[in-house]
Design brief:
By secondary structure, the chain is α/β, with parallel strands linked by helices.
C-alpha cells in the first residue's frame, strides 16, 4: 500500500497526495524527454523547461486518470479515501469494494476512457500548435498524447490490479454471480502478467542493454506482488463474509494516556495484563498512536520518568481508525497487522476509542469462520462441573 507523504490538497472533494518516489519519476521523465527533444532541437534551457512541463503534464494526466476512477466510485456509493501519485503512476485508495458488477465495471473503465480522450485531444492540440510553432513544444504535446494512449492501452491488460483486471472481474462476476471466482481469476491473470513483464524486462536488460528493461522489471514485480495481495484479500473476504469489526473487537480495551510518562505506565495496572500492544489516547479519549512493549525496550531506566509515552508511540495510520460497522475483510485487506506490534482502533462517531482489533483477533476470526463457527470472540470457556 502506497501512502502519501506530500499533501497536494483536494479536488472534487477527494484528498490528493504524492509519495516521495513520484519525484524520482518526475525527474526521470524530464531527463528522458529532455534528451529526446535536445537531439532534435538542440540542447538549450528552453528545451529542458519544455521537458519539465511535459513531465508535469504526464503526472496531471495520471491524476486525471485516477480522479475519474474516484469520482465514478463515489457516485456508485463506494468510499474513496485518497488519490496518491507515486513511482509507478497513481492509485485510487478506495475505502471499500464496489457493491455490484455494474459499479465495478463503471469504475474500472473510467480511467482508461479518460486517458484515451486526453490522448486524442492532445494529438489534436499538437497538430494545431505545430501549424503555428515548430520545435520542442508540439513534440512535447505529441509525446504527452502518446503517453496517455499507452497508459489507456496498458491499463486495459486483463489482470488485477490493472483496470483491465477490474473489467475482467466485473464481467465474470456479472456472468457467474460468483465474486470470489471473478476476483481469483483476475488476480491470477495479474500474476501471469507481472511474471511476463519481469522476464521481458530481464531479457531486454541482458540482451539489449536497455535501461528500460529495469523499468519493466520493476513494473512486473509490482504487478506480481499486488496480484498476490489481491488473491489473499479475495480469500479473506470469502472466509469472513459479512463479519463486521464490532463482531470481533475487544470492547473497552486497555489504553495508555498520551500524557503519561513511561514511568507512569510501568507503575500502572496495565503491566499486570497479558496485552502486548496498546492504543495511545489523547485527553478526549481519541486514539493518537499505538505502543508495544518492544517500543520501550531501548529506553534507559533513568529516562522513564522524563520520557512521555507520546514521544515513543508510533503514529496510528488513518486506515487503522475504523468504525465498528465496517466489514472486517475490507479493513484487514488495507491495514498491516503485525503480531504483538500493531492494533486497529475502533472509534465511535466523535472519534473516541471503543474497541481494538489485533492480529490475534483477526486470525481467530478467520479460523473460526473457516470451521463454520461464529467469527466473534467467544466468551471465556468454563469447563463443565464433573464432580460427582
Amino acid at each position: 500500500m502506497v501512502h502519501a507523504t506530500i499533501p497536494l490538497g483536494r479536488l472534487a472533494g477527494i484528498r490528493i497526495g504524492a509519495h516521495w518516489s513520484a519525484l524520482v519519476t518526475l525527474g526521470l521523465f524530464t531527463y528522458l524527454l529532455g534528451r529526446a527533444l535536445a537531439d532534435a532541437d538542440g540542447n538549450s534551457l528552453g528545451v529542458w523547461l519544455v521537458a519539465a512541463v511535459g513531465a508535469v503534464g504526464l503526472f496531471v494526466s495520471l491524476l486525471s486518470h485516477e480522479l475519474a476512477h474516484s469520482i465514478i466510485a463515489r457516485r456508485s456509493g463506494t468510499r474513496v479515501d485518497a488519490v496518491v501519485l507515486w513511482l509507478l503512476g497513481g492509485v485510487s485508495e478506495l475505502g471499500d469494494e464496489p457493491k455490484d458488477p455494474r459499479s465495478d465495471l463503471r469504475i474500472a473503465v473510467a480511467g482508461p476512457l479518460t486517458s484515451l480522450v486526453l490522448g486524442v485531444a492532445l494529438f489534436g492540440v499538437a497538430d494545431v500548435v505545430a501549424a503555428v510553432l515548430s520545435g520542442a513544444v508540439p513534440q512535447m504535446l505529441a509525446w504527452l498524447a502518446a503517453m496517455n494512449l499507452i497508459l489507456a492501452v496498458f491499463n486495459l491488460l486483463p489482470g488485477a490490479p490493472l483496470d483491465g483486471g477490474r473489467v475482467l472481474r466485473a464481467l465474470i462476476w456479472r456472468h457467474t454471480g460468483d465474486r470470489l471466482r471473478a476476483s481469483t481469476v483476475a488476480a491470477r491473470n495479474g500474476r501471469v502478467l507481472g511474471l511476463a513483464l519481469l522476464i521481458l524486462g530481464g531479457v531486454e536488460l541482458l540482451l539489449v542493454g536497455n535501461g528500460g528493461g529495469l523499468w519493466l522489471m520493476l513494473l512486473g514485480w509490482f504487478l506480481f506482488s499486488a496480484a498476490n495481495v489481491e488473491l489473499s484479500a479475495a480469500g479473506l473476504r470469502h472466509r469472513l463474509g459479512e463479519v463486521r469489526v464490532r463482531d470481533v473487537m475487544t470492547e473497552r480495551p486497555l489504553s495508555v494516556p498520551a500524557t503519561w510518562s513511561v514511568g507512569d505506565l510501568l507503575r500502572s495496572q496495565i503491566v499486570h495484563s497479558d496485552h502486548r500492544v496498546f492504543p495511545v489516547i489523547d485527553p478526549a479519549g481519541r486514539p493518537v498512536g499505538e505502543l508495544a512493549w518492544s517500543d520501550l525496550a531501548a529506553l534507559p531506566a533513568a529516562a522513564r520518568d522524563t520520557t512521555a509515552v507520546r514521544s515513543l508511540a508510533r503514529p496510528l495510520p488513518s486506515k487503522a481508525r475504523v468504525s465498528g460497522d465496517e466489514l472486517l475483510s475490507t479493513v484487514a485487506s488495507q491495514v498491516v497487522l503485525r503480531p504483538d506490534f500493531d492494533v486497529i482502533a475502533v472509534i465511535d462517531p466523535p472519534g473516541r476509542l471503543v474497541g481494538v482489533v489485533t492480529a490475534t483477533d483477526l486470525t481467530l476470526a478467520v479460523q473460526r469462520s473457516a470451521l463454520g463457527l461464529p467469527a466473534h470472540r467467544p466468551e471465556r470457556y468454563q469447563p463443565p462441573n464433573t464432580t460427582l
